[in-house]
Design goal:
Largest sheet: 10 strands, mixed
Bound molecules: S-adenosylmethionine
Number of helices: 9
Number of strands: 16
CATH class of the largest domain: Alpha Beta
CATH superfamily of the largest domain: Vaccinia Virus protein VP39
Length: 295
């Protein structure tokens, strides 16, 4: 039997995090308030001031993240006066100056994005998920996110050419090498850095909710059971809900009490686990509850 905690706190993450010790969390995953986008809802920051607003919070993230932990930032620059603003690019540069390593950029392809027509651009169907680390030796559990090999294997691996049975370096000079023959007989492969996920459409209480699959993928990739996860801009609590369901502890912070209430409603602050708790989401889910004993 073990205890699982899901703690939702109200306040500005800048202040709330000051009460946490150094090197506490294994993963920080969040989508911050986007520049200006939801000013009426929770006080937006203008695109020009965004980096200055973000940096002191990122300093706290850096402090509370374990050396082998990971910070995943879901963000997308908005269009200002007909062009993409550069605050995300500027933020990446400043975060590197703060000491973060910009390890990777994942693309979240929103496969159900609304059709639309604009005079000067097409519909926006992707967002960045930027990966930052404190050190080059961070924890990563790649096998936890393996995907079915897919039909290409049936045709591509059926007849191997001479370059397929040796390690063959990329002809475009990318530095990547591959040995296709290694994949014969396997039914799973490692995924790419493009995540094809639908946006959340069912949540009317918060306009920017994560689809469960997004934090789930990163939580599986960068943590194991009983680890601690932080979402400093937790909104209606998706990250904490997913973390709990995957047997991870979490802390979620939101500045607005109404979101804190929504998030608290989704998780149990403390659970005693009798056995594995992997089941569909929602604390009112009967199937899941049968497998848990709450304190
Ligand atoms: C994009 S939303 C996050 C949505 C979340 N991923 C979800 O699935 O519901 C950003 C959230 O940050 C909160 N917020 C804005 N400024 C904050 C601050 N300084 N500290 C903590 N939360 C803040 C907002 O109230 C909002 O709910």
């Amino acid at each position: 039997m073990r205890t699982l905690e899901s703690i939702i706190k109200q306040g500005d993450c800048l202040e709330v995090l000051q009460k946490y010790p150094d090197n506490y969390f294994d993963l920080i995953i969040t989508s911050p308030p986007y520049a200006d986008c939801r000013a009426k809802l929770y006080g937006g920051t203008s695109p020009d001031d965004y980096v200055e607003w973000f940096l002191p919070r990122a300093e706290q993230f850096f402090r509370v993240l374990k050396p082998a932990g990971t910070f995943v930032l879901n963000i997308k620059e908005k269009v200002v006066k007909g062009e993409r603003h550069t605050y995300v690019i500027e933020l990446i540069i400043e975060l590197r100056r703060q000491g973060w390593l910009w390890t990777e950029e994942f693309i979240w392809h929103k496969k159900n994005c609304h059709p639309g027509k604009w005079p000067n651009r097409f519909r926006d169907a992707w967002e960045r998920c930027l990966q930052f680390n404190k050190t080059r030796k961070f924890k990563m559990y790649q096998d936890a996110v393996m995907v079915p090999m897919g039909d290409w294997a049936k045709t591509r691996l059926k007849k191997l050419g001479e370059n397929d049975v040796i390690r063959f370096n990329s002809q475009v000079g990318s530095g990547f090498g591959k040995n296709i023959a290694n994949w014969v007989g396997r039914d799973k492969a490692y995924p790419s850095n493009v995540l094809h996920l639908a946006t959340e459409t069912g949540n009317r209480n918060h306009g920017a909710t994560f689809p469960h699959d997004l934090p789930e993928w990163f939580i599986k990739l960068f943590t194991k059971e009983d680890d601690w996860i932080l979402d400093p801009f937790v909104g209606c609590g998706t990250v904490c809900e997913v973390a709990q369901n995957l047997g991870r502890n979490s802390v979620g912070i939101d500045i607005l009490q109404e979101y804190v209430d929504l998030a608290r409603d989704k998780v149990n602050e403390k659970e005693m686990l009798l056995c594995e708790a992997i089941a569909p989401y929602g604390k009112n889910n009967k199937k899941r509850n049968n497998r848990l004993h709450r304190t």
